[in-house]
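G.,

No rush on this.
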Amino acid sequence: MSDVEIKVENIVASATLGKSLELPKIAPALENVEYNLEQFPGLVFKLKDPKTAALIFGSGKLVCTGAKCIEDSIKAIHMTVDKIRELDTEIPEEFEIKIQNIVASANLGKVLNLEAVALDLENTEYEPEQFPGLVYRLSDPKVVLLLFGSGKVVCTGAKTADQALLGVQKTKERLIELYLIEE
């Protein structure tokens, strides 16, 4: 595989507590929380360490965003649930945490002619009047890459950092195969 490094920019993880939550009671008891039902149907609970935001919904679902590694994402969800459990002792000890999306960035180190890439590379969308990047969809791993003329890449849709890395590596190799960039 080609040598390219990725940087994880954001991880989105979710958890289902299996119990509905009384947000009007929880909101005033938490620090660093935003709760405005007219603007958003849940609480936004911000943690400083790890620096994340947890979206807490009345259905008992949580979404954590902002972590840079899976461990921090899991830690943030557990910290959030522990805070909620202080207010509601019926919150189950066991719950499933699912990684929903990993966003990573990379730099191919080469300028890309996106017009040529759009013509030669399969499964792409490129409309420069609407968005400056080219959208490239891979099926294995199932990720979407945004390619920019500068050679910078954003990979989204991965469930693991390895999937994001593999997506970027496969993309670079395909661009080399098609003579769209040099090795």
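When you get to it, here's the other one too:
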Amino acid sequence: MCVETGRLLILKDLEIIYGNLYDLWNQNYISVRDKEKTNYFTRVALGAYAYPMFNVSPNFKCIVAMDENNLASVDPLLFNRFEKQKLSINDMLDDRQKLLVKYLYNWTNQITTLVKVNSVIGLHNKFTQEDLFIGFDKDEILQSLIFHVIMNNPEANDNEILEK
């Protein structure tokens, strides 16, 4: 339906059908001109169903979202058909939110700094943020926390956000 109406189509974790859409993504279209406009068609086959004349709007756009950790296993024939963009949660944060994340990062770093004296190597620290927070990821956890708190408390000031 998005293809026919020219609406944006976002696909994620649908590797099972991507191979069936190569003609669509290659813009391998049959053009049929009538009195007023040109219509575009392509072949799409999904399992036992085949659509040899699938209507494609000239305004159709498609985004395929992939996890960066899984890119090594992506079929190169699929991967090379798209412009690549890397997005992270940091791209969604404004300057104020990034400053709050930095403050929280420094705070978590301070509370996980456990220093003990070792007679052989001097000062020693083996306690990390991952030890304190199960599943801690420096690129996602604090950013997600700040984003969540601000979305649920839009009028909160910085101190109130950090307290939550």
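The first helix runs from residue 2 to 5. The CA atoms of residues 134 and 141 lie 10 Å apart.

Enjoy the weekend,
O.
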